[in-house]
Design the sequence.
């Protein structure tokens, strides 16, 4: 009896975790101000956060054309 409940819970939990997983969809914490941008690589929209925008402006950089995931990939590939 106890074992079954244990397994049900275990598998239920695992399933929940798998279903609730959304790759590269990190929720912006705090106020979600920003601009929706379209990634040129995967064509997905991503949030160019207000803080990031300021950072890019301050450094005189052009806004990113890729989502954080694709940017990371490129960085790692080099
Ligand atoms: Zn992308």
Sequence:
């Amino acid at each position: 009896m106890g074992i079954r409940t244990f397994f049900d819970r275990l598998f239920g939990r695992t399933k929940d975790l798998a279903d609730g997983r959304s790759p590269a969809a990190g929720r912006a914490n705090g106020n979600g101000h920003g601009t929706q941008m379209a990634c040129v690589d995967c064509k997905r929209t991503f949030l160019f956060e207000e803080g990031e925008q300021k950072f890019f402006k301050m450094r005189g950089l052009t806004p990113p054309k890729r989502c954080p995931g694709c940017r990371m990939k490129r960085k790692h590939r080099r």
Notes: The longest strand covers residues 34-38. The chain is about 50% helix and 15% strand. The beta strands are 34-38, 45-49. Confidence is low (pLDDT under 50) at residues 16-30.
